[in-house]
Amino acid sequence: MSQVYDTIVIGAGIAGCCAAFVLQQKGQKVLLVDRSGMAASGGSGAAGAFVSPKIGKGSPLQKLTNEAFHFSQAFYLEYFPDYFHQTGVIRIPKDAEDAGKFSLYEAFNESHYRWVSKEALETLGIHNAQDSFLFEEAGVCDAPELCNAIVAQISFQQFDVDQLIYENAHWTILNAQGATLSTKNIVLSTGYQNTLFDMRYMGVRGTWGSRGDYESELDLKVSMHKSISVSANVKGIIKIGATHVKAKEPCIVCNGKPLQVLEEKAAEIVDTSDFKLKETFCGMRSGSKDYFPLAGKVIDVPYMFESCPAVLRGAKPPLKHMKNLYICNGLGGRGFVFAPLMAEWLAEMIVEGKEIDPRVNPDRLFLKWCRKL
User: Looking at residue 197, what DSSP letter applies?
Assistant: First the structure.
């Protein structure tokens, strides 16, 4: 008889890795599966993986992002300090107009920060910049390395999921070859792709991200973001990255040169004359339609349509969820910021029965989506 797990997490990006790790920390018997034989092979692998606050005028998304920032940096420092480099992150205005907004953002900077003048930035080797914010507690993760370090502490199996069947209070997971896995709970962390259930209401979409790792002797001690991200020099490597192409066929858009624009922008900020490309990473990062993460239960859409067709005309019936099926997904371009906190909240729901925070509960999107059908 096959081994039965408490929870199987499908998808080994940073969302799935953190979900599996936290569930195991709470005493569950967990298995993480991915169709690839390695962790972070998609969008998480392409991430610049900055762990930094969001600036702005105090929007709900900014508040949640900064709550997640404080949680994530503490999480990485406690459990995976070798893969989180607290270099500090300088947030540089995009242009003079953007610089005028920074004074308005000060009142909403809940994270520790200080101003850095453009003259001081020049001494750090940062050019063409306006006065900026420095968040000294922020930093950058080694993206694939971090995911693999998490995987090393939990059970992992390469498994390309073809079908999910729920009966007798358990899920059976099948691949195309007929192999099976058995579990009480399933967490879907499959990124922008999902063919297993009707989850269109969540509006998950992909944004193509590219990153280049460059060998360099440039003594760059701090990471920065100015429309693109440039990391500090960590062990002789500087990372340049951005999420920037919203296209179904991004390889046509970039015409085989995914890093060209990034390299041009980076050269305007720092001295890239000795940069030697070591490796290129490309992947599709998933985000929800309202940019908030998705963590919680999954609605049984076919049942809702059949039992209450008036939901398409604005009715608000009680929602029915799939049994023991959860999601941790749609973290957008700040996956390494959101993942630990989303994993914690989801694990509290699964293990302790706590209600999920309404800001990330996918239920928020269902009724509005129905009215638009």
Answer: S
**Residue 351 CB neighbour total at 10 angstroms:** 17
Q: Are 308 and 302 in contact (CB under 8 A)?
A: no
Q: 27's torsion region: left (phi>0), alpha (psi -120 to 50) or beta? A: left
Angle at 80 between CA 14 and CA 220, to 5 degrees: 90
Question: What's the pTM value of the predicted model, to 2 decimals?
Answer: 0.94
The backbone torsions φ and ψ at residue 314, rounded to the nearest 5 degrees and listed phi first, read: 105, 0
Alpha-carbon distance of 310 to 163, in angstroms, equals 30
Alpha-carbon distance 258 to 239, whole Å?
Answer: 14
DSSP state of 256: T
Neighbours of 270 (CB within 10 A): 21
Residue-wise pLDDT tens digits, 140-190: 998 889 999 999 999 999 999 999 999 999 999 999 999 999 999 999 999
Cβ 344 vs Cβ 23: under 8 Å? no
Q: Which tokens in the block code for residue 77?
A: 């420092």
Q: Are 150 and 80 in contact (CB under 8 A)?
A: yes
Where b means 16+ CB within 10 Å and e means fewer, 80-109 reads: beebbbbbbbbbbbeeeeebeebeebeebb
- Asked if 288 and 15 count as a contact pair (C-beta separation under 8 A), the reply is no
pLDDT in tens, 229-286: 999 999 999 999 876 555 555 554 456 566 888 899 999 999 999 999 999 888 888 8
CA 345/CA 348 separation, integer angstroms = 5
List C-alpha distances in Å: 300 to 176, 201, 254: 24, 11, 39
